[in-house]
Structures are given as structure tokens and as C-alpha cells.
Amino acid sequence: MSSNLHQFMDQHVAVIGAIVLALIILSGCFELFVLKQRALGRTTFFWGLTVLSLWVGVPFTRSRIVAATAVFLIGLALIAIFSKAAKRPDEHG
């Protein structure tokens, strides 16, 4: 049984990674739009960005590390832009 699980995971590692990443992003959307918890949603998006950057960077080669760093910095800038552009309910008055 254990051998079958390892074989399945080896064959479908990209799909499993994409599902984990999608679940992190969806939980961030849930926190942001349903629970109205902006800070919690941004934190979850940050962890999703971290997971995505690691996924891009592994296995560690020079070009993959550069690509992962670029993904992380662009994503961080987008989170900052979103945070600055988003109006909080207490800021309307």
C-alpha cells in the first residue's frame, strides 16, 4: 500500500502541488471576500506566494532560483498594491 502511494505521488507531484496551491489561494479568497478579514487574507496570499516561489525554485538551479525570486518579488508587489488600493469600511467617512 505504501509503495503504491509513493508511486502515485511521484507520478502526480505537479498536480498535487497545484491542488495545494489552489487550496491556499481559495482559502485566502474565502477569508478576504466571505469573512471580510483583509489582514488574514493577505497573510494567506503571502503564504501561497511563498509556496509558489518554492515550487518554481525546486530543484535548486541558478535559473530556477532567479525565476523564483522574480515570482516572489512580483507577487509581493501585487499584494502591496492590492493592500494599498483596497478601501477599508472604516476609511469611507
Concise synopsis of the structure shown:
The chain has 93 residues and is an all-alpha fold. Helix content is 82%, strand content 0%.
Characteristic terms for this protein:
mainly alpha; 4 helices; 0% strand
Furnish the topology, listing elements before pairings.
Elements: H1 2-11, H2 13-34, H3 38-57, H4 62-85
Describe this structure as you would to a colleague.
The protein is mostly helical and 93 residues long. It has one domain (2-86). The chain has helices at 2-11, 13-34, 38-57, 62-85. The relative contact order is 0.09.
Measured between the Cα atoms of the first and last residue, the distance is 61 Å
Question: Based on the structure, what is the oligomeric state of the protein chains?
Answer: single chain
How much of the sequence lies in strands comes to under 5%
**Number of continuous helical runs:** 4
Q: What is the CA-atom radius of gyration, in angstroms? A: 17 Å
Low-confidence stretches: none
Biggest sheet details: none
Number of domains: 1
The string of secondary-structure elements, in order, is: HHHH
The secondary-structure class comes to mainly alpha
Write down the overall mean pLDDT: 86
What is the share of helical residues? over 70%
Number of strands: 0
Basic shape: flat
